[in-house]
Amino acid sequence: MGNEISNLEALEAEAIHLIREVLTELERPALLFSGGKDSAVLLHLAMLAVKPKKLWIPIVHIDTGHNFEEVISYRDKIISQFDLNLIIGSVQDSIDRKTAVEEPGNLSRNKLQTVTLLETIEDYKFDALFGGARRDEEKARAKERFLSHRDAFGQWNPRGQKPEIWHLYNTKHHTDEHFRVFPLSNWTELDVWKYIKLRNIELPTIYYSHQREVVRRNSMLVAVTDLTPKLEDEESFVATVRYRTVGDKTCTAAVESLSSNVDEIIEETQTSRISERGATRVDDKFSEAAMEDRKKEGYF
Q1: C or N: which end of the chain has fewer Cβ atoms within 10 Å?
Q2: 250 and 196 both lie in a single domain
Q3: For the chain, what percent of residues have pLDDT higher than 70?
Q4: Are 223 and 119 in the same domain?
C-alpha cells in the first residue's frame, strides 16, 4: 500500500507542477469539464494547485444536449459547491447557427463537439485548455505531449510538437494559437480510481452499480432512453450495470457490474482485460488513423 500511495503522490505532484506552470505562463487558461471521473480528478488537482486560493479560471463544458441526467446534476452540484465560473458551449447553438451540421440518421453529436469547442475558444480567447485525457485510453492520444500545441485553426500536428525535456515546458505561441494541456497523461484508469479513493473525490452516481433498462446492441449494453429507444427487433431487460466512462447517451454503453463502491471498482478494474473505451464507447469503433484525423481537426 505504501508504494501505491507513493506512486499516486508522484503523479499528483507531476500534474500540479504542470498546472502551476501553465497558470503562471499563459494568460487565459480554462479547464474542460465533462462531469466524468477524469475531469473530476483534474478539477481536484487544479484546486490543489492554487490552494489556499479559490480556483479562478473558467470551467468549460461542451454540452451536446444528449448527456445523462445524473452527469448534468453532478456538474451543477460541483459548480455550486466550489463557487466556480461555468461556461457552457452548446452544440445545439452551433447547429442553430448552421456552423455544425447533423448527419442524417446519425444521432450522435460527438463529432460536432469539435465545432462548438473551437467556437468557444475563439469567443473567449482561451490560450490553454486543461483536459483529462490519458495516454492509455487509445493510440492517438498516446502521441500527445503534456502541452499539445494547436494552431490558429485549432489543429494539431503530431510531428510538430514541442520537446518536453526534464519537465520543462515551452509555452510560446502566436496570437490565436493555444495549447491543450493534459496533466493526467501518465495516469491509468486504475490510477484514477485509486486516487479517487485516496482523496475521497465525489463522482456522478452513474459510475456505480445500479439497475437500468438496457438492450444488447452490437455486443454492448445500451440504455433505453429518449434518444436510444428499443428497436422493433430488440428485447429490453433490466440489468445491474455501471458506466466506466461517461459520454452521451447515444455513444456510451454500460457494463454489467455489481461494484457499488470505489474499493469494488478498483478490484474490478484490476482484473479487466478490456479498456474502458473499448468496452463502452459505441463511437470508438474506427481506426487509430481516423481518431488521429479527428484530433488534428481540433477534437478533444
Answers
A1: N
A2: no
A3: 87
A4: no
